[in-house]
Amino acid sequence: MLRSEGDRLTRVVVCTPVREYFRIEDLGAHNIGAVAGRERALEQHDALKSVLRDFGCEVIDVPELDGHPNSVFTRDTAVCTPRGYVKVRMGLETRRGEEEWMARVLDGLGEPRAGEIVAPGTVEGGDVILAGDVAFVGRSTRTNEEGIRQLAEILKDMGYEVRVAHVPHPFLHIGGAMTVVGDGTVLCCRGVFPPGFFRGFETIEIPAGSFISGNVIHLGDGEVIAEKSNRKAMGALRAHGYKIHELDLSEFVKGTGGPSCLIMPVERR
Questions:
Q1: What are the residue boundaries of the structural domains of the chain, listed by start?
Q2: Model confidence over 176-210: pLDDT tens digits?
Q3: What ranges make up the beta strands (E) of the chain?
Q4: Would you say 186 and 206 are in contact if contact means Cβ atoms under 8 Å apart?
Q5: Residue-level pLDDT, tens digit, the chain, 269 residues
Q6: How is the beta sheet containing 202-206 ordered, strand by strand?
Q7: H helices of 74-188, where?
Q8: In what order do the strands lie in the sheet with 78-81?
Q9: Which residues in 29-166 belong to E strands, given as ranges?
Q10: What fold does the segment set 9-268 form as a domain?
Q11: What are phi and psi of 29, to 5 degrees?
Q12: CA distances (Å), 48 to each of 15, 88, 187, in order?
């Protein structure tokens, strides 16, 4: 069950890169900036899993999907909610099929299916952030109007107020520009969101310096995981009393991903 990203993280699905993430013929088609170094990427991913486990989170590690280098970024492949998961439809053509893969994983974990996004709609999980009674949704190159319409119907039936914002360059998903970091508190990039978007929430604002400026993993109990290059976010969070687990995830930044992109949060309590 996942009602809010502000709750304590207790169960995630990850995908350790073993082969697919390192054998990419067309970087542009997969929206990957550069091929990662295998040994370093494995060390970095292991460090991430170690922090998650040390915090008490159950980490379910699934094999990569053949032919899908982006399957390491599990966050995008479903949306978990209080009533189960929403099967999405990926916006990037080369990622199509990953939603079926993750659906099989979540079915195998006993997670009920709460809904499904169908063509011509597209939704990627990185564009959906649940925060108590509010669902923040990004309209991006990956998540279109029809996908948002279908998703909003599903989430409104669960009692969510759906707030939609355009996701501007350089961000790929809304999750690059914001993270819910506690009950009623949001880390967000200044100048990205429309007035009133975060009404009812306390905001910790930072400059919009890169495509992962607002991207951290909220663990719970005032602890977060941040990529080591994200100095502004870490400084702002420390000033508000947060404990930071600083990790080098540079081999995944090469793939246009930040920390939260590497986990599918299945349960928070």
A1: 9-268
A2: 999 999 999 999 999 999 999 999 999 999 999 99
A3: 9-14, 58-61, 78-81, 84-87, 113-116, 128-131, 134-139, 161-166, 178-182, 185-189, 202-206, 217-220, 223-227, 243-247, 264-268
A4: no
A5: 999 999 999 999 999 999 999 999 899 999 999 999 999 999 999 999 999 999 999 999 999 999 999 999 999 999 999 999 999 999 999 999 999 999 999 999 999 999 999 999 999 999 999 999 999 999 999 999 999 999 999 999 999 999 999 999 999 999 999 999 999 999 999 999 999 999 999 999 999 999 999 999 999 999 999 999 999 999 999 999 999 999 999 999 999 999 999 999 999 99
A6: 178-182, 185-189, 202-206
A7: 98-108, 145-156
A8: 78-81, 84-87, 113-116
A9: 58-61, 78-81, 84-87, 113-116, 128-131, 134-139, 161-166
A10: L-arginine/glycine Amidinotransferase; Chain A (3.75.10)
A11: -65, -30
A12: 11, 25, 21
Q: For residue 38, what are its two tokens? A: 């295998």
Structure tokens at 163: 């707030």
**Rounded to whole angstroms, how far apart are CA atoms 89 and 91?**
6
